[in-house]
């Protein structure tokens, strides 16, 4: 019996929500370990779509413990909206419990203001953030001036920390960006209300997970974004501000790394990216537009059109290495149906003939000179969404899967052929160890 971490192997939006939702059926605790409401996990159950930004994607199952870990940055307003939405729709299961780590940091209004102000002042050098204040909130955490959930619910502490922060942030906002200052009294009033609402959900979540482990319960660690948005290992500076690799599953929930036994890397059958930054296998032609339309590749958080391209196994192989991935869940294979030819990016090459097959160059000047090297394959035209066994897939689809497995050097544990829970070919149960 194993505990499993689920992470993205590309630049996010790989379909982690669907896989976490599926795996939640066979787990007891689902713990999110990083990111914030920059994420948007789309889950479709009985044709009804739910997009979650903060609450773990396992919430739609009854009798689970869902945890927002210490590594997450929490926008309380968004979290409350999400809880209310689930309750109003009648899909917050009666026996499922949600807990928020008291050590998680709070995204404050000044974080959002700084995020947006910085982006709008960076002509030509924008990161293309989601504008949700994620970066500034993690900065404050590292600078040791952040407000944690446990500070938010301690009235005296909250007031003191808010006042200190506002003084500094107002200076920054007004002097650097010519923005209006923020009013601490109105923020205090608004956030005190959020604290009151959220009190019932706040806990020492490390202890809860530890207790579950002692009872032999199964834990699913839910990642957000993707490996190449990782602040250490991604295409820096075009990254998010947290560690998205599996190593953070333990740090971001307060559990030792030995509790994570299997790591499932979610990989889309093609590649997408939102925001700025290098993307070697990007398609800016009709094929890219077609993938975007058929795959509905528009940001779940911001609605932005996602940049689309061929699958890039250099990216995925690097993710396998960075996270110690033990199996791949391939998603959105059905989106490629109908394409005459399909390409796989197997390497990058510079004009000087330098080749990269295992790792992406960290130096963005070198990366920007790289051209993709493709292996080309014949596509398939048959509808594959009803297929539940690999053997029933068209021959060219199976060839594509075989090629990918051999290039990536990992087996598939599942292949998703549609957004619904049932539109899945299950090959291996990672919880079986
Ligand atoms: P931030 O996380 O809002 O600071 O944005 C930094 C970069 O990460 C931008 O390129 C965003 O588009 C990207 N990003 C953040 N969250 C996600 C996600 O959940 N999916 C895909 N891209 C994301």
Radius of gyration (Å): 22 Å
Sheet of most strands: 10 strands, mixed
User: From the coordinates shown, what is the CATH architecture of the largest domain?
Assistant: Alpha-Beta Complex
Stretches where pLDDT is under 50 for at least 5 consecutive residues are: none
Bound molecules: inosinic acid
Spatial arrangement of strands, main beta sheet: 9-7-5-2-10-1-11-15-19-20
Total of helices: 13
Estimate the global geometry from the Cα principal axes: globular
* Tally of discrete structural domains: 2
Q: Care to count the β-strands?
A: 20
Strand content: 15-25%
Residue share in helix: 25-40%
CATH topology title of the largest domain: Adenylosuccinate Synthetase, Chain A, domain 3
* CATH homologous superfamily assignment of the largest domain: Adenylosuccinate Synthetase, subunit A, domain 3
């Amino acid at each position: 019996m194993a505990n499993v971490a689920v992470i993205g192997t590309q630049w996010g939006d790989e379909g982690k929500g669907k896989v976490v939702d599926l795996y939640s059926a066979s787990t007891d605790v689902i713990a999110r370990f990083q990111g914030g409401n920059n994420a948007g996990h789309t889950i479709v159950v009985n044709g009804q779509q739910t997009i979650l930004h903060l609450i773990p994607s396992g919430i739609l199952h009854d009798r689970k413990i869902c945890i927002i870990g210490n590594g997450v940055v929490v926008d309380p307003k968004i979290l409350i909206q999400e809880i209310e939405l689930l309750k109003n729709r009648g899909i917050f299961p009666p026996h499922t419990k949600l807990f928020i780590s008291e050590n998680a940091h709070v995204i404050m209004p000044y974080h959002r203001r700084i995020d947006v102000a910085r982006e709008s002042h960076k002509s030509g050098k924008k990161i293309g953030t989601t504008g949700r204040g994620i970066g500034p909130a993690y900065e404050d955490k590292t600078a040791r001036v952040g407000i944690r959930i446990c500070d938010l619910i301690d009235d005296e502490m909250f007031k003191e920390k808010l006042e200190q922060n506002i003084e500094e942030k107002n200076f920054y906002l007004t002097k650097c960006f010519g923005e209006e200052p923020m009013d601490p009294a109105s923020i205090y009033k608004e956030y005190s209300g959020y604290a009151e609402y959220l009190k019932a959900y706040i806990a020492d979540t490390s202890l809860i997970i530890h207790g579950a482990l002692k009872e032999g319960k199964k834990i699913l660690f839910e990642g957000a974004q993707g490996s190449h948005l990782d602040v250490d290992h991604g295409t820096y500076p075009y990254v998010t501000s947290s560690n998205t690799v599996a190593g953070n599953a333990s740090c971001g929930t307060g559990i030792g790394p030995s509790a994570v036994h299997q790591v499932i890397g979610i990989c889309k059958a093609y590649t997408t990216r939102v925001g700025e930054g290098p993307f070697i296998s990007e398609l800016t032609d009709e094929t890219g537009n077609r993938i975007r339309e058929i795959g509905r590749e528009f940001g779940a958080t911001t609605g932005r059109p996602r940049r689309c391209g061929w699958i890039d196994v250099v990216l995925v192989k690097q993710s396998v290495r960075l996270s110690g991935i033990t199996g791949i869940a391939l998603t959105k294979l059905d989106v490629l149906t109908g394409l005459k030819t399909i390409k796989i990016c197997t390497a990058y090459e510079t004009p000087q003939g330098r080749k990269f097959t295992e790792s992406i160059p960290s130096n963005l000047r070198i990366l920007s000179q790289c051209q993709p090297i493709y292996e080309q394959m014949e596509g398939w035209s048959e509808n594959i969404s009803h297929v539940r066994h690999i053997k029933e897939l068209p021959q060219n689809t199976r060839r594509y899967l075989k090629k990918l497995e051999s290039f990536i050097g990992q087996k598939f544990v599942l292949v998703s052929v549609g957004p619904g829970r049932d539109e899945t070919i299950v090959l291996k149960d990672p919880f079986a160890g």
